[in-house]
Amino acid sequence: MTEFNIDSFDFIISDTHFNHNNIVDYCQRIGHDPRGHATDYDRHNQLMIEQWQRYVKPDSIILHLGDVAMGQKHLLPDIMKVLPGRKFLVKGNHDKWSTELYESLGFEVIQPFMFEHMGWNIFFSHYPKRVLQRLEANVHGHIHNNAVDGLTRKHKNVSVEVMSYTPQNFRSIVEGVVWSSNADSSNNFNDSEWNTAPERINKSRKSR
Fold it and tell me: Which pTM does this prediction carry?
């Protein structure tokens, strides 16, 4: 199994949801028309592609924490072929196609993982890990721009809606969550066992 560290990746991103029209309205993404008359469902695709191309170079390594795209899979190659960089994917709840398909699109599919940095164990996952061990922090996606009870400064949400639709510097994200974890006095941890089961967040909302 590959072991990762803070130098393994250059960028990180999550929950791009390429080609997912409903997410534009659900999360009021760029292009959303609150009046419901003239929503531009292509604008969020265009913006994410532009920002990816602006920062990620062909020799960059980027970690995607899941929910790459939805809709018709035959449309995906046209998007993926213009996104530079070596791409790693931790699959999300909407990444329902086969691993082989994602690999054909240029992703190396990996499992959620953890590494130690500056005394903290940093866990990378699609779902937020609701109960953390002592000296554990979590970088995650899934929640988009929704407020979720129980998450603390030991959690870092990298969903595109809260990251300006832009891949983020991986080292800065890791060092940022370490800094905020050191400043967090909450007791959101469990010394006895890990709770890694995906949580049903906002059950009453429609599936994203």
Answer: 0.86
